[in-house]
Amino acid sequence: MILGRDDIRLTPFEEQADLVREAFGRQRTLLIVDNLETMEDKQGILSFLYELTSTVKVVLTTRERAIYTPIRLEQLAEDATIELIEQQAEEKQVSLSQKEVQMLYKRIGGIPAALVYAVGQRAAGYSMESILRMVPSADGDVARFCFQGSVEPLRGKKAHEMLMAFALFPRMPSRAAVTYVAGLETDPIEAEEALSQLQRLSLIRELDDRFRMLPLTREYALAELRAHPDFEKKAHERWVTWYLRFAQNYGGHDMEDWYKRFDPLNEEWENLQALFDWCAVHDRYDVLKVFWCAEEPGSIIDFTTLYGHWDNRLDWLNWLIDAAEGREDWLTWLDATASKAITLALMTRHAEAEKCFEEGEQYLSYAQPHIKVHWLINKVYPSVFKIGPKNREKINTQEYFDKALALLDQARDIVPHVPDAQLRTRFTLNINYNYASAFYWRGETAIAKGTFQKVMEEANTFGWQWLANGAQNYLGDIARNEGDYDTAERLLELGLRIAERNNEKRRTAKYKSSLAYLRQKQGRRDEALEWARMAYSDFSRIKVLGVDLEIKRMESLINTLESNRSH
């Protein structure tokens, strides 16, 4: 049809190539060869294309990346994807809401063929729910069209196992993680070849030693995984083992520069959530205990405290509490309930927190010393919160002050019975920090100052920089209130740098608010206003942490400073 030479088909097959090349030489042609990887005798086709005259330009599409100089086409960006969906909807006279457009993007990604097919299905009368279920389905037309030809030749090879291993990771896995889950950790050459083959077929793409797999590809890989139950079982066990080891390396307490320990956990948070879901469905209680019991070496309790994964944390603590109760594992129940209570307290849901503590009292006498201390320290927090001057007209703050000190004294008496020396030191520092906090909010800053100073020095020596940073913030505020502005400035500016370096958003916001008040005291109102606005913005973004009071304080300070400015 392109050449207008019906006689070519009548000549012997072995002579046809020369006649086609001759015919192409007489005209300018754009020749498109689509999906080369699905064709037989690829080398013969390439040889033919190389020998064409300069009047022919060739566009060759393939998932394989080992030929020519490629122009790599990734999935469409979000803006381009939405534009394509809206263009197809207009062309096919389909009405789609913005919510439905976003649903298509989130579920399918930026794969043009799949998006065009999906909008076409909507035009044919299928519901959005059906489309979102059908289009990514491994048994559907789109998946077969996109992947069957590429995946079929991989079956029985290590690359196929690597593909199935990728299915377990909703977010980009590292090279080390996916290699381990695929069972290829001891054979790095085979692992590299498998990854290379998947990349050549455009089934994955490497980005900074991680690998991205598109949502539609992952759906197909999940179906492949389910179709191979023996491999699936082994892969899941390796997946669990990998993240248990990962938590051992990056979980635990918030020591030293805590961002170095916790940032890798935050990068893997979506993958960890998938692991937790699977463990819950398959009743892997002992695995979830490792992650969600506060004093386990692989615990992520401190990590979730600092990085603000509050809702997720409550969900999994509730699961662990229910599972522990069903097994009559009261020590785990107490540990998880204490963590739940402090979470609720941090979110200013104090009535719920106190109810948790009341429910746990009946089992506390059976607990090991470290669980008792953990429980008592956490129980102090709601009382300390109520001691401040803002509550003095509403409640008897003396009662809560006395309660806080009594709980801290109980905890202090138990600490010597904790076997682990490092844990004893950590508990002692935490008790002293809360002791100083109680006196600070009581208004007895002389006692608070001396205790905070001691805590800051000892915590730095011990390597608990997070606690030292908190004590430093208090000391900066005390110095400001005493009129020692030089000391306050030194403490607060240094403390802010440490908080920012560690990505501690709540503490960073608190330091900024402290600097706003300091600048106001120094008469540097423009700087005070700038710090107050930054603190307000930071607090507003993390208000899930129960910082509504801080937001109101910053609003009031901003209004005062702006009013003074206008005069």
Key terms:
single chain; 567 residues; mainly alpha; Helicase, Ruva Protein, domain 3; Arc Repressor Mutant, subunit A; 5 domains; two-stranded parallel ribbon; two-stranded antiparallel ribbon; 28 helices; elongated
Give a brief description.
The protein has 28 helices and four strands.
Number of domains: 5
Give the CATH class of the largest domain: Mainly Alpha
CATH superfamily (homologous) name of the largest domain: Tetratricopeptide repeat domain
How would a crystallographer describe the biggest sheet?
2 strands, parallel
Read across the widest sheet, the strand sequence of neighbours is 1-2
Question: Would you count the extended β strands for me?
Answer: 4
The Cα radius of gyration reads 31 Å
Q: Residue-averaged pLDDT, rounded?
A: 87
The residue fraction in helices comes out at: 55-70%
Runs in which pLDDT lies below 50 for 5 or more consecutive residues are: none
Shape: elongated
Count of helix runs: 28
| Percent of residues in beta strands | under 5%
As for the CATH topology of the largest domain, it is: Serine Threonine Protein Phosphatase 5, Tetratricopeptide repeat
Distance from first to last alpha carbon: 83 Å
Structural class: mainly alpha
CATH architecture assignment name of the largest domain: Alpha Horseshoe
Pfam family, one: TPR_12
Protein name: NB-ARC domain-containing protein
